[in-house]
Amino acid sequence: MPLIALTGGIASGKSTIAARLAEHGAVVVDADQIVRDVQTAGSPVLAAIAAEFGDGMLLTDGSLDRAALGTRVFGDDAALARLNGIVHPAVKAESARRFAAAFAADPDAVVVYDVPLLVEARVDDPWDFIIVADAPAELRVRRLVELRGLTEEAARARIASQVSDAARRAIADIVIDTSGTLEQTKQQVDLAWERVALVG
């Protein structure tokens, strides 16, 4: 019943790796989805965000205005720290609940936590393996421009706002280089699966 953290910078190929692990039978828990789930309209987390940053963070239907919140905290380390202090504990509790549910349903499950902010928030959790998706920054800029429609300046700013690739590689048990072909990436994931599945 290994518990695996999968992380990587923006546009590093994390989703491709997660999808391949799911094909092998892994239960993938998506941190970004949990963030959205704990911030739904009427949730304690959303109420706390509005109390901290103002009702301007809410849309007319009571849901979170992600663009407004992003603009409010981007580049403001103190504001981001306050936001993380609200969101991270709730995400940690909900992810633990989902891990436990997966292992309760299948004690032999391989659970993969797809988590962008591992280095920043969850590196000391008791992971059996940490897998890092890795690709050169220039390639990731190109992916953000071509696949997500960002300007080059915006793409570089997003990458620069995250921890360094070196910091991610330093905590990795397995590094998957996604700079080659899709098939090459999948082959690396298949080898990683053989390794982590042995732990179960």
UniProtKB/TrEMBL annotation:
Keywords, sorted A to Z: ATP-binding, Coenzyme A biosynthesis, Cytoplasm, Kinase, Nucleotide-binding, Transferase
Known catalytic reactions: 3'-dephospho-CoA + ATP = ADP + CoA + H(+)
Membrane-crossing residue ranges in chain numbering: none
CC per GO annotation: cytoplasm
Sequence positions that bind ATP: 11-16
The protein's Enzyme Commission number: 2.7.1.24
Major enzyme class: transferase
Cellular localization per UniProt: Cytoplasm
Top-rank taxon, per record: Bacteria
SUPFAM superfamilies xref list: P-loop containing nucleoside triphosphate hydrolases
PANTHER family: BIFUNCTIONAL COENZYME A SYNTHASE-RELATED, DEPHOSPHO-COA KINASE-RELATED
Similarity comment: family membership: Belongs to the CoaE family.
Role, per record: Catalyzes the phosphorylation of the 3'-hydroxyl group of dephosphocoenzyme A to form coenzyme A.
Protein name, entry field: Dephospho-CoA kinase
Source organism of this protein record: Microbacterium bovistercoris
